[in-house]
UniProtKB/TrEMBL annotation:
Pfam families: Rieske. This is Rieske 2Fe-2S domain-containing protein. Residues 12-107 form the Rieske domain. PANTHER family: 3-KETOSTEROID-9-ALPHA-MONOOXYGENASE, OXYGENASE COMPONENT, IRON-SULFUR DOMAIN CONTAINING PROTEIN. InterPro entries: Cholesterol_7-desaturase, Rieske_2Fe-2S, Rieske_2Fe-2S_sf. Keywords: 2Fe-2S, Iron, Iron-sulfur, Metal-binding, Oxidoreductase. The keyword Iron applies. GO terms for molecular function: 2 iron, 2 sulfur cluster binding; metal ion binding; oxidoreductase activity. The keyword Protease does not apply.
């Protein structure tokens, strides 16, 4: 079974570059009702929902290894690119793509319903 992102309508929201961590560092950002864990990586930034779906632990404090973050509470490992739990892709956290463009840095957030 593979983990594919479900298509969803999103909007691009500008980010202040000062809130983006350098490689190897994480930050938590509260943005328009979303608690987002942002991880600085050598290839840019990865942003996922900060709450583990198992029992709500903050993923920002987890250990980074091989493109995944390990939940500090119970050891679940989530892929930063897809948000999927490694070895059990049916469980996932939201992923918020960050892009650098001509108008600055933006993050994709779900459209309000």
């Amino acid at each position: 079974m593979t983990c594919a992102a479900e298509p969803a309508a999103s909007r691009r929201v500008p980010l202040d570059p000062a809130c983006l961590p350098p490689p190897g560092i994480h930050a938590v950002l509260q943005l328009q009702g979303h608690s987002i864990a942002i991880f600085g990586m050598d290839d840019g930034w990865h942003a996922i929902a900060d709450s583990c779906p198992h029992q709500g632990a903050s993923l920002a404090g987890g250990k980074l290894e091989g493109g995944a973050v390990q939940c500090p509470a119970h050891g679940l490992r989530f892929d930063l690119a897809t948000g999927c739990l490694r070895n059990a892709p049916a469980l996932r956290v939201a992923v918020y793509p960050i892009e650098m463009g001509p108008d600055g840095i933006t993050i994709a957030l779900p459209c309000k319903e």
